[in-house]
Amino acid sequence: MKGKVLILCGGWDGHEPKLVSARFKKYLESEGFEVTIDETLEVLKDKERLAELDLLIPIWTMCHDNLGYGFFEPLLEAVGGGLGMAGCHGGMCDAFRNNVEYQFMTGANWVSHPGGDGTKYRVNIISKSNPITEGIGDFDVSSEQYYLHVDPANEVLATTRFPTVKWYHSANGEADVPQVWTRKWGHGRIFYNALGHLDNVFEIPEAWELMRRGMLWAAESKKIAREKGLSADDWKTPVKMY
To answer: Which sign does the torsion angle of CA 182, 185, 188, 190 carry?
Structure first.
């Protein structure tokens, strides 16, 4: 077994969380991972269970419950100790709109998708040598084009250019908005791919290859932390952070 993966499946049904979860589970099991799908958020408060995982994949668009500050502290600590996170589209970066600590960890929050589903746009690969993007060229998509407010510390692998659809934001001129990136949270690796409005987006070879490689990359951080004896304690501070 390569490791343990937990997929959080829920939230807004329009993003087809069950289909996306099933696709990811089937692939990761073929790679030798033990994969569990959970349709509740209780695990996010369970330090012991989070500590057992190598990879967490949130597929949970929106959450209208006010979970409050501190709800995600066990998750922040688990990722800080090496747990990898990988996700796509609204399932990860439009997951918990009221929780800035979660947004800080994942590296962005969704704000708009001008034109909605069926918008034709191009994904531009800007990092040619990164293992996640190596050999993948720019490609076109017809889907939701995500405008995200993004952490400048992210390592951006791909962008898309706005405006594609005329709206108020068009007055600002052209802007390249990150769509695929990696980042660190303590010892944990985090991967995000803004594609994935519907499950069939991953029928596009480039979109799937980015997601596939990103999940495997993120899953490696826990193994590295175990081998080196690293923990979240390396990053903890008594100073107020949120």
So the answer is: negative
Task: Give the count of domains, the chain.
Answer: 1
Dist. CA 51–CA 38, nearest whole Å: 16
Q: Which CATH number does the domain housing residue 200 bear?
A: 3.40.50.880
Output the six-digit token pair for 208. 């799937």
Residue 88 burial class via C-beta count within 10 angstroms: exposed 0-12, middle 13-18, buried 19 and up = buried
CA distances from 193 to 2, 39, 179, 212, 228 (A): 23, 22, 6, 10, 29
Among 201, 203, 206, 144, CA closest to 177: 144
Domain residue limits at 13: 3-109+180-234
Percent of the residues in the chain that have a pLDDT greater than 90, as a whole number: 89
- 152 DSSP assignment: T
pLDDT tens digits, 85-137: 999 999 999 999 888 999 999 999 999 999 999 999 999 999 988 999 999 99
Q: How confident is the model at residue 71 (pLDDT cuts 50, 70, 90)?
A: confident
Residue 225 CB contacts under 8 Å (≥ 6 apart), including other chains: 81, 82, 187, 188, 231
The burial class, CB within 10 Å (0-12 / 13-18 / 19+), for 40 is exposed
Q: How many Å apart are CA 64 and CA 229, to the nearest integer?
A: 38
Distance CA 15, CA 192 (A): 16
